[in-house]
Design goal:
- The protein has 2 helices and no strands.
- By secondary structure, it is mainly alpha-helical.
- The longest helix is centred in the last third of the chain and has 22 residues.
- It starts with 23 loop residues before the first helix and ends in a 15-residue tail after the last helix.
């Protein structure tokens, strides 16, 4: 008799949702004032982008030997 295969549960290594840095009501209000509807995942996507911007600004400040993030650290130069 063949051995019965045991099914191993695959654990997906999804990143935990990033802490929400946006004020949802204010963000939705700003989008709607521009004549846009707001999808259910819009704030999550924008929040992810804000986290990315923060990481980039912190890295730029560190690369310049600073611990203080300044306004120009958020400027994306292409």
């Amino acid at each position: 008799m063949a051995k019965k295969k045991t099914s191993k549960k695959k654990t997906s290594k999804k990143k935990a949702p990033a802490e929400m840095l946006l004020v949802a009501s204010k963000t939705k209000e700003a989008l709607k004032s521009n004549g846009c509807n707001v999808g259910g995942d819009a704030l999550e996507g924008l929040n992810g982008w804000v986290h990315w911007l923060i990481d980039q600004a912190a890295a730029r400040a560190a690369a310049n030997g600073r611990k203080t993030v300044r306004a120009h650290d958020f400027i994306v130069m292409g």
